[in-house]
Amino acid sequence: MNWAYVWAISILSIEIVIRIVALFVVPRNRRPTSGMAWLLAIFLLPIPGLILFLIIGSKRLPKKRELKQEAINKFVSGISEIDGGRLTTDPEDLQIGVLNAVELGSSLGAQPMLRGNRASMCIDYERSFAWMADAIRSAKRYVHIEFYILVHDASTDVIFQAMREARARGVEVRVLLDHISAVRNPGAKKTRETLDEIGAEWAYLLPVRPWRGEYQRPDLRNHRKLIVVDGRVGFMGSQNIVDSSYNKKSNIRRGLHWRDIMVRVEGPIVLGLEAVFQGDWYLETGEYLEHLNLPELTPSFPGTLDCQIVPSGPGYAAENNLQVFVSLLYTAQDRISITSPYFVPEGSIMNALRAATARGVEVELFVSETGDQAMVYHAQRSYYEELLQAGVRIWMFRPPYILHSKHFTVDRSVAVIGSSNMDQRSFGLNMEISMVVYGESFISDLDQVTEYYRDNSRELTIEEWSKQPLRSQLLDGLARLTSALQ
After folding, report:
1. Helix/strand/coil (H/E/C) assignment for every residue in 449-468
2. How far apart, in whole angstroms, are the C-alpha atoms of residue 200 and residue 133?
3. Domain shared by 233 and 140, yes or no
């Protein structure tokens, strides 16, 4: 018997079966672009494609985590009942389009819009660490810190020293950090040791440790960045707690540094940040912080801004951040300004932008001229021609900086800011936190930030883009295709 022949026939039969089964399984409840990308991968490389699909082909969380997430969603939405609803914004105070987006978000798991808030922002990377450390030093009861990347290095030492001082005064310090991110970034061991030495309670987010019974899709990330101090002061935005080079040799060799934005908030919206942290703490530790009852933390109304926290991720329905973003984009009458380091838009966003320019809305996009992640960078570039032809102005932030801020404004009344990129990962896979802000003063401040971006960027033209070499076009197209593998 020719065993080589038998082996070849067996492999061929298995590959045929895999392809046939994939036609029934892959497209189900999956957007067409993603389904086609997966089918192409499986048809070209059946066995490797199947293995990859089994590892990262489903966004479902383990059943135990899903049940916890359901409890968290109810807990978060319960903010509207605090103090008899006195904290929530009167619907009559909102423009109809904004009101529709806010109500849509609430129905999909976001919190209600809360009134009477104050917010300020910082785009100086190093100064923001000192800014957050000052707030931590003022803590009397507790400090809650949750970041995608949190590393103890020379730049972030001021944060860790502030935590140490807080603990020495008897303040409770709790810290959450993404597990996979912690493992793959330099300084993980030092960070763990420092947190233990400080006496902080801490846990990994979305840990992948099968030997401990902890496993979910390994490329899921908790991408949130937030701090809450005593339920009265909060921080959120795009900046991680790590040196602006991310301490990576490749970044240092290229001279790359990150530019970000963090927002300091006071008022009822701090309860929204607190609810997200407490929910994530319960999800990862199983501990419900009963002694930090949200109704007892009801703050005053120090400002005039109306704000809504939109937590999102695989545990929320129907890509809720995407739906809120698109709903707001369709309200634009005058202008849209978007800043996103990883802009790989879902079809509905592209349609919203094309519709905006078609009705005379001025649309601009701020991105980095250089990239730190090759596949995402090339996938993003694959959309430039469509955007330019639609009339979108593209501003590229000059090297050696990576513009990592994530926000957009619509007209002069509403903005969204937070951790969410405008890409399929942030809409479908990452746990993110965004804040919808209604108020002209905040938009004015954000306009000053985008003016700084513009002064440090150059505009990409359709004439320049048409001269892209063939190899770049090929790389961009392949990256665009693989970005749909979700």
Report:
1. HHHHHHHCEEEECHHHHCCC
2. 15
3. yes
Tokens at 231, concatenated: 């339920």
Q: To which residue do tokens 């063939």 refer?
A: 470
Tokens (6 digits) for 139: 């803590």
Joined tokens for residue 368? 């980095």
The closest of 228, 61, 65, 264 to 136, measured between CA atoms, is: 228
CA 419-421-424 angle, 5° bins = 130
Are residues 350 and 288 located together in one domain of the fold? no
Cα gap 163→145, rounded to integer Å: 10
Asked whether residue 103 is domain-assigned, the answer is no
End-to-end Cα distance, the chain: 43
Closest to 320 measured CA to CA, from 333, 330, 328, 310: 310
pLDDT tens by residue, 355-383: 999 999 999 999 999 988 888 898 899 99
Sign of CA pseudo-dihedral 437, 438, 442, 446: positive
CA–CA distance, 449 with 261 (Å, rounded to integer): 9
* Nearest Cα to Cα of residue 406 among 456, 349, 337, 339: 339
| Confidence grade of residue 84 (pLDDT, cut at 50, 70, 90) | low
Q: What is the pLDDT of residues 137-156, one digit of tens each?
A: 999 999 999 999 999 999 99
Kindly provide the residue ranges of all beta strands, DSSP E only, lying in 179-304, ordered along the sequence: 201-205, 221-222, 225-229, 233-237, 257-259, 262-266
Q: Specify the number of domains making up the chain.
A: 3
At 327, list the tokens: 């709903």
Residues 262 and 329 in one domain: no
